[in-house]
Structures are given as structure tokens and as C-alpha cells.
Amino acid sequence: MGFRMNPHITTLRCSKSGMEVPSNGFASPIGLCRCCPAPGKPVVVEYDLAKVAKIWLSNPASGSGIWRYGPFLPVWDVPEDYAFDVGGTPVVRHDRLGEGLGVEVYLKNEGVNPSGSFKDRGLSVGIALGAACGAKRFCLPTQGNAGVAACLFSSRLGLPGALVYMPDGFQGCIYHRSCEFFGGEVRFFGSNIAAAGSKMREDLQGPLACGEFVDISTFFEPGRLEGKKTMGHEILEAFSAKSLPDYILYPTGGGTGLVGIWKAFREFLGAGLLEPQHLSLPRMIAVQSKQCAPLVAAFEAGAEDVTPVQSRGTIADGLDVPGAIMGHAMLRVLRESRGFAVAVSEEEIRDGFAEFGKRGIAAGYESAATLAGLQDLCRSNRIHAGARVLLLNTGSHLIPLAKA
Ligand SMILES: [Zn+2]
To answer: In CATH, what class is 119-223?
Structure first.
């Protein structure tokens, strides 16, 4: 494939214990840590930020899409037709959305990514990283866009189609059809993503253990986080001439983007690359559905980690994540950024989606949850009048419309 590892990676570290994780020269794919109780906790990549900053400053933005930020990514020498069309998404001010709320609202439109959602960022890097470490095929349980993105990028590398496990109820849905369209193989099991994931790990125990397959589930390998953090880089660039938004509202399921955006900000800070007008970082706000809000419960309880809940099901598939393996890091981001977590009702999500339609904004249910969250927070004065707020529009309106 000709990929090259970023030579300025210094450390792989367990996100929970802080212990160093051996890289073994990247001769085999990187999974969860071994220092925490099975199945382990997510591993994060650290770089020599001084060296990375030097490359960035000498040759800023040399690639296209997310590979503009190549010095901060784990894999280099990615071919143009693999992922140069991922990222580079616009941030647009929507005055009419802020009308009546007394705030300035921006949307980052991730629906323009190749498979129609922000999942393309993480999966393109995760799959490139796994392939660079010798993986032959990728698998994951999914009930949404992540599976589609995994199939798309496996196809682009000419690998055997990604093996995707979905809950039984998803047979024939848009995600199933899109995975097959992009060359994936789809299997069905159980009533939810956790059951589908358990079945996958049981079926593929051997190939996963020897590194032939990589489990590309949210946070089960470090590449998806690295890809998602490019949203943070792009936010810094979009606001280059002014201060950053006061708040970023992020629709939170697995939380890769929440942790990733903050990682990008912290790495730019650590590399001495933050512009003076950006030194005041946004407060990060996680928005969940009241039907499935484990992060909100943990945040309000002042907990160190997220305890899984029983989901009551939500129309926003991306928010239907009852247990988050990176919950400890999400809570850390909320605390560090002086942010918080809020939950909205299904009715509010539907109303938000309808309002997007009326305003001519192409966004899905997850993004509608952030609009609903913003409205609640403005009404209760938790977001002050005059604030500048960025909502993540994580995916196209076509997905919920095609699903219904
Ligand atoms: Zn660990």
C-alpha cells in the first residue's frame, strides 16, 4: 500500500491508566490496552509536538481534505484517491437559526463527506493505520454511518469488503444497502449493537487475535480518534481571523469527535501553534437523547467514568450508544473545557429536524439534537445572550429521510 508511519509518533498511551502501550514497531495492528481489565481501554497516539510543529510551519496544509493536517496524523503517504475528498467541510454562520435565541450560530456541515457523514474522517484514518500495521480486513458492529464508511474505505484500498454486523432490525435499511453498495459483507444478529458486537467478536476471535482482522469499532483502535480530531483543526482554520466560538455543541454517542476536537486544540496548544486570539478555547457541550443519556447521568453525578444504561431507543441512531468505552475521556473533556452535558427529548429532536428543513439546512437527527439542546440552554440562560455557538452537523438529511 506504500503507507508510512508518522516518524514523530513518540508514544502510544492507555487513555485510562496513562501507562505506555508497546507499539512493537507497528508490526501488528494496535487494539485496546492490556493494562486495564478486559477487554481493555482505548489507546491514544502522542507525537513529538515540537517536530510536528516545525513540519507544519515549513509546509502548511500541503495535502487536501484531512491530509492538510498530515503532520498531526499517524499515517503518511496516503494516495490522493484514497481520502483527499474527506473533510475540508465548511463552517457557515446561520443568522436565522440564532434569531430569537439572541446568539450567533455557526454550523459545520459534515454531510458533504464522501459517504454523507463525519464518520469518513475517523474511518479513513483508522483503516489506513490498520493497513499500515498489516491488517488484511476490517470488521465492526454498527447501526449507522460508521459501517458505510468502513466499507467505502476498504473498497478504496482494494481490500476484501469490510465485515459489518448489524442488529436484526436493520435488515434492508439504508445502512445495510449502502454497506453492500460499497462492497461490504453484512451479517445480522441480536436486538442491539452490543449483541451484534459480541457475536462478531465470538465469530472472528481467531482472525482478530492474530491481527488479520482489525476491529474498527469506535475507540477499539487509535486511528478513528486521530481522523476525527481534524474537525478541531478545521474549526481553528475557519475561525482564523477571530476568536473561537464560546461553545461547541456536539451530538454525543461514542464521543470520538468530542474527544478528538479537544485533542486537536490541546495538541496545537502544546505545539505552540495556537494563535493569540484562540487561547480562550470553546466550552464543549455534549448533547444526548433523553432515551439514552449515559454521559449526562455520569456528568451530573460527578462520576469519573460512564456507567452503561439501558437505551430506550432514539430516532437519532448516532446517539443510541448505551455504554461508551471512552466515557472517562469524554468526562475529562467536559471538565477541562468547563463544558457540560445535556439531554433532549425525541419530540425536540423531531422539531429541530423540521426546523432545519424549513430553514433550508441539510442536516440529520443527531444535528437536530444539538439545535434542540441550544434552544433549551438559551431558554434556561445556561448559554448567555450574545454567545457565539458552533453546532456540528454530522450528517446528511437524506439518511433520516431514506430510513423513514
Ligand atoms: Zn489500560
So the answer is: alpha beta
